[in-house]
Structure formats: structure tokens, C-alpha cells
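User: Sequence recovery, please. Input:
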């Protein structure tokens, strides 16, 4: 156990880029100071990489792909290395949890949950590497036709700050299982766990250049990576605006992309639902990670006859929520950075000024440092579905409640935003469970449950503005590979 979470980074510990199996600073020697969101204090630094560093990393990944050590290695061996990386993560799990928690401000139990999920990704994709295969196709007489699933080549993964260890793991697991090589650009606000896992990958024995990590600002390192002609495929998780910029850059080279761009995910609560079972899940879906979750359940739609009861019960729970430092392990931690805190607060004041009913508000722990980026959780009631707070992704601990009249009304409301990532449906009526699940436009639908961020095995991704392509599960292996058709004539 790490006894003192703030001691997780040793004085002389350096966080560097990983290029071609070596730890290197940015060529410019420039660094970015790393702050802990819980107190706003600096505790280490990362390289401020630019286009030239990205170019080195892409060239290393290209050479590693072209030499075939990785792409032509037996799939079972690639899988074994991924599994080994998972074991090394397990052996270092307390350190990694503490590091993630200090770097992002998330409560330590969430850091631990993220490590456990990361381990599962490496285990899952390690096991899947030799279980994906092509088809044989009935074709003309005198021919045999078959397909192979081949790697794209060099994949770029641009990772956000909310769940860096998990999102890195789903990208690395699927991309490397298929024989691609990788360049990862983590978010400048949360790069430490990515670097540590890169170090563990060296220890595990991945060939040089297979997994490269370049830290830096999105506008420098991220933009250079997404526009690099040496990248064959890109995967991105983050905001729709940055997703558009990355797709435009990728389009200049006509490269394929997977985009996971967040949501405004609804949970629909029908009058016949098991409300006691639903309540803790409804709260957790928006409070987990301080609401900084792409699949956060940020809208709760309640059948009119039970609206007052459910809103009252949620208000009681919200009033008891407390935000505080990561090592205090309270309901939620700080927001990732001052800009995110201001952004969430601006949504809350705009909604309040627009006359939206503030039903309940949590608190900030008395001993939380005033220099931390805390926001107390907010519950808004009877929200107009066309209000800004009902339509836009806040990415903070802000939940909006709506009422509906019947099933059609509920589906109309659920589908009434530009997003379509996840949905929850709470009802005991089996036929209704099927009807609603089919009519809601979301990449994942949970019935009497909600999986904010969870489910390594479950394909995940969006409809509409939430993006395209699928991560997680077996499906990610299809995104991370291309089909090659081979035809033999033998008449
Ligand atoms: P963002 O801009 O989407 O950042 C995500 C990643 O993209 C980071 O690694 C970022 O690098 C990089 N990036 C930024 N600009 C880039 C560019 N021009 N080219 C290539 N890469 C670039 O997200 P943000 O600004 O941190 O947060 C803003 C909002 O995005 C949040 O309030 C939230 O609504 C949403 N968001 C959604 C998710 C999600 O999981 N769906 C995750 C994070 C944020 P740097 O951070 O190092 O600049
Ligand atoms: Mg940080």
C-alpha cells in the first residue's frame, strides 16, 4: 500500500517521452509543469514535445512496423506480451493508482478501479490476439477466396485526461493485438500513468518502437501527430471540436479514424421501476470521476407520476455529496484544471440565471485546499429540454431532471440531443425494455443498470455527434485492422 499518496512521485523521478524503447526529453528540452488538481501545486514535469519529437516517434513506429518483428510475430506471442504488461501493472497497482489519483485529482478508489480496468484490458486483448481471423468466401467455380485481417500500420492514439490509464489500455490493447505499432499522445493535464505504463512495457520486453509515447500540448504535439503523413490510422477520445480538427488533419492524408466524442446520456425512469435499486446508480452515473466521464448519465427522465418522489430522493442524496482531495477519498475529487472548474461553474450560473430550479447542492470538504479546483455537485429540476444545460455536455457533477408523460415522450426526450453514446432504462416491463432499447439512439443501452465507463468486453462508441467507430470488446479489433481479400484461381 502507498501510505502517503502525495509521496508517490520520488524527488528524482523523471517523466520522459518514450521513443524507440528509450526514455528521452523533448528535443527542445522544454517541459510542462504538472499540477495536482487537489491543491493546485506543482509536483513534477513532463516533456513539452513539438512536431520534431512527434516526427521521431512516428519514424520509430514506422521502422518497428516495417521490420516485421511485431506485425509478423505469432499472434499468440503478441498476446503473451500484452498479458505480461497486464501482470506488471498488477504488481505496481498501488503506485499506479496513487499516481493517477494525484495527477487527475480523482479519489483514490477511482484510481484503483482504473488500474483494475487497465489490467483487464491487457488481459482481454492479450487473450484475443490469436482468436480473431478472416473468412473463406463462396466465390466462382475454380476459385478460392479468403480474407485476412491485417494491421493498418502506424496507429496514433490521442488520449484525454479523464481516464488516461483506461483509455490508453483500450487503445494499446486493441491496436497492438492486431500487429499495429503505436504513438500515444496523452493529455498534457494527465500524462504520468501513460509514461509509467510505457516504462513497464519496456520492462515487459516489447520490441523497440512498438509503443511510443510523446507528451505535450494538443495544439503542438497533438496537431503534429494527427497531420503526420506517416500515421496510417488515428483513434481519438475527447471533445467534438477537437475531434473535428483531428478528422480534418487526418483527411489531408485520407486516413481512417475512430472518434469517441462524449455525450449527454439519458437514464429513463418509468413508474414501475425498482426506484431503490435505481437511486444509487443514477447518482453514481454523474458523480463518478466528478462527472468528467464521456458516458456520464447527465440527464434523468422521470415518468410524471413519480417525478416528485424521485426528485426528492435524489435531492436528499445530492445534498449529502462532498467533494475533496483525492487522498480523502470522498464522493468526488477536484475538476482536472482551473479552466474545467470555470466551465462547469459557468454552466451552473447560466442555468440558475435562466431560472432553472436548483433542487439541491452538495458541499466541498472544509479541509479541502482553497487552491484546489473543486466544484460542489448540483441537481437541477424540471429542466426545459431545449435549455443549454439539457443539450450541452458539461463534463462536471451537474445532473438535470426532466419529466415525461408516456413511453413515446420518453424516447423523444432521450433522443432529443445531438449526442448518442449511452442510455439507461429503468422498468420491470419486459416488452417495454426491448422496445425502448431498440428505439433509443445510443451505442450502449443498459436495462436496470448503468455502465458509466465500465465493461471491457462491451463494444463502446457513439451515434450522431458522439462519434463513430467502436472501442472496447472484440469489435475494437476490427477498427484496428483492415480486411485484405485474397483470391486463388485453380481451374
Ligand atoms: P480535448 O481538447 O478534446 O482534448 C483531448 C485530447 O486531444 C488531449 O490529449 C488534447 O491535448 C488533444 N488535443 C487538443 N487539441 C488538439 C489538436 N488541435 N490536435 C490534436 N490533439 C489535440 O479536451 P479538453 O480541451 O481537455 O476538454 C474540453 C472539453 O472536452 C471538456 O470540457 C469535455 O466536455 C470534453 N472532453 C470529453 C472527453 C471524453 O471522454 N469524451 C474527454 C476529455 C474532454 P492537451 O490536453 O494536451 O492539449
Ligand atoms: Mg495534473
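Assistant: Recovered sequence (491 residues):
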Amino acid at each position: 500500500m502507498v501510505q502517503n499518496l502525495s509521496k508517490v512521485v520520488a524527488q528524482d523521478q523523471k517523466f520522459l517521452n518514450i521513443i524507440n524503447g528509450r526514455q528521452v526529453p523533448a528535443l527542445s528540452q522544454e517541459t510542462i509543469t504538472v499540477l495536482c488538481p487537489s491543491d493546485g501545486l506543482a509536483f513534477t514535469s513532463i516533456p513539452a514535445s513539438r512536431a520534431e519529437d512527434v516526427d521521431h516517434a512516428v519514424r520509430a513506429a514506422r521502422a518497428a512496423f516495417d521490420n516485421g518483428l511485431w506485425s509478423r510475430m505469432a499472434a499468440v506471442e503478441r498476446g503473451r506480451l500484452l498479458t505480461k504488461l497486464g501482470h506488471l501493472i498488477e504488481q505496481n497497482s498501488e503506485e499506479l493508482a496513487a499516481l493517477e489519483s494525484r495527477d487527475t485529482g480523482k479519489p483514490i478508489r477511482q484510481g484503483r478501479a482504473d488500474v483494475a480496468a487497465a489490467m483487464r484490458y491487457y488481459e482481454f486483448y492479450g487473450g484475443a490476439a490469436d482468436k480473431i481471423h478472416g473468412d473463406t468466401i463462396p466465390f466462382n467455380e475454380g476459385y478460392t477466396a479468403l480474407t485476412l485481417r491485417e494491421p493498418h500500420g502506424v496507429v496514433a492514439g490521442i488520449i484525454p485526461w479523464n481516464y488516461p490509464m483506461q483509455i490508453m489500455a483500450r487503445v494499446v490493447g486493441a491496436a497492438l493485438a492486431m500487429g499495429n505499432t503505436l504513438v500515444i499522445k496523452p493529455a498534457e493535464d494527465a500524462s504520468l500513468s501513460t509514461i509509467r505504463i510505457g516504462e513497464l512495457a519496456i520492462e515487459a520486453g516489447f520490441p523497440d518502437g512498438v509503443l511510443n509515447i510523446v507528451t505535450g500540448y494538443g495544439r503542438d504535439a497533438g496537431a503534429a501527430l494527427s497531420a503526420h503523413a506517416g500515421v496510417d490510422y488515428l483513434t481519438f477520445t475527447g471533445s467534438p471540436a477537437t475531434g473535428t480538427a483531428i478528422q480534418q488533419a487526418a483527411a489531408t492524408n485520407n486516413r481512417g479514424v475512430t472518434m469517441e466524442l462524449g455525450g449527454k446520456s439519458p437514464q429513463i425512469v418509468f413508474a414501475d421501476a425498482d426506484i431503490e435499486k435505481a437511486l444509487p446508480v443514477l447518482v453514481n452515473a454523474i458523480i463518478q470521476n466528478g462527472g468528467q466521464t464521456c458516458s456520464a448519465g447527465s440527464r434523468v427522465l422521470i415518468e410524471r407520476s413519480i417525478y416528485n418522489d424521485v426528485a426528492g430522493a435524489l435531492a436528499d442524496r445530492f445534498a449529502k455529496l462532498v467533494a475533496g482531495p483525492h487522498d480523502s477519498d470522498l464522493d468526488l475529487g477536484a475538476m482536472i484544471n482551473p479552466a474545467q472548474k470555470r466551465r462547469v461553474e459557468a454552466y451552473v450560473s447560466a442555468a440558475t440565471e435562466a431560472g432553472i430550479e436548483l433542487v439541491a447542492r452538495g458541499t466541498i470538504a472544509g479541509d479541502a485546499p482553497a487552491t484546489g479546483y473543486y466544484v460542489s455537485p448540483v441537481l437541477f429540476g424540471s429542466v426545459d429540454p431545449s435549455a443549454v444545460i439539457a443539450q450541452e455536455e458539461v463534463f462536471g457533477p451537474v445532473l438535470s431532471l426532466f419529466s415525461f408523460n408516456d413511453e413515446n415522450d420518453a424516447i423523444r426526450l432521450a433522443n432529443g440531443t445531438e449526442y448518442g453514446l449511452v442510455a439507461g432504462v429503468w422498468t420491470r416491463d419486459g416488452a417495454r425494455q426491448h422496445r425502448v432499447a431498440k428505439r433509443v439512439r445510443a451505442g450502449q443501452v443498459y436495462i436496470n443498470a448503468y455502465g458509466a465507463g465500465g465493461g471491457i468486453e462491451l463494444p463502446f462508441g457513439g451515434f450522431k455527434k458522439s462519434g463513430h467507430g467502436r472501442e472496447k470488446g472484440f469489435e475494437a479489433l476490427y477498427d484496428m485492422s483492415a480486411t485484405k481479400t485474397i483470391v486463388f484461381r485453380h481451374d
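The first strand starts at residue 17 and ends at 19.
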